[in-house]
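REVIEWER CHECKLIST
Item 1: Sequence provided? yes
Item 2: Single chain? yes
Item 3: Sequence as submitted:
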Amino acid sequence: MNTPSWERVISILKKYNRFTLGCHLYPDGDAIGSLLALGLALAKAGKEVEMVLPEGIPLTFDFLPGIHQTVIYPSFQPEVVLSLDCAERARLQLPEELFDHDPVLVNIDHHISNDGFGHVNLILPEAAATGQIVFQLLRKSGFAMDAAIASALYTAIATDTGFFRYANTTGEVLSIAAKLVEEYQISPSFIAERVYEEKSFASIRLLAEVLSTLQVSENQRYSWMYLNQEMIRKYEVEMEEIDNYVNYTSSIRGIEVGLFFKETKPDVVKISWRSKAGVDVSRLAAHFGGGGHTRAAGCLVQGPLPAVMTEVLTFLHHYFEENMQERTDLMV
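Item 4: Structure as written out by the authors:
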């Protein structure tokens, strides 16, 4: 991985004028908030900017100022492509022809599994969110901020820290959040309500059905549940409304690892991993071609849902058998 270079990134942002911004597949609050914040700041500075969300605007985040300035498909050849919160080049939601004229690819991320695929990389695994990096980048570079940019940054940081509940919530994170609230008068309660407390009736009904699949391993160290294509067709719920379901698996007392299997397409299974202290799920997800963070990771596995579940759960069973001596006092 390349050494992070604030100076090189700042120089690129100031030197060039045409920017295209993208983020990872199935974008979460950090990806969207980081994309919006940096894109709006560059536009405010007079740059030509396109913020690309190929799957459209996720319903959960349609309240964010500036989000309706995003596009589904880029319309010009940029001088610079900015990748936000994307750990792998293959997951960057931008068309390949965008790179025909060899734009500078700047990779801004906080995933520990990021291999530094950009021409220039600003990767800080110690950051709680990519939004935290973007905040620091804007402050260091002198680009002006406003309430819209602050709202996007707060959303990015808040969602990746579980609204300041996760272990990655540091004093620096809280200090940045406080600055955004105090300096730009944004409303934390409004953002929390829109992101976490407004759910469609269909998503609640679907949650009930998904929870009925919840199981705990015999050793009571890991749990899992699943969502199949039949359920998706039955309730017609937006995928972003489903992402936080995984937290129920790891909220069970004594559970160290929780998994949520989502059959996003026939024979395509997205697996969300969550953990408590003691287990690095980014390493477990990496076994299946994924990655992420120590306490939250993901992977995409090809195959029928039952077969994928059997393969992953067998792997996890062997993992815990080999690590029995590392059992903490979490046993119920």
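Item 5: Key structural point noted by reviewer: The longest strand covers residues 257-265.
Item 6: Recommendation: ____
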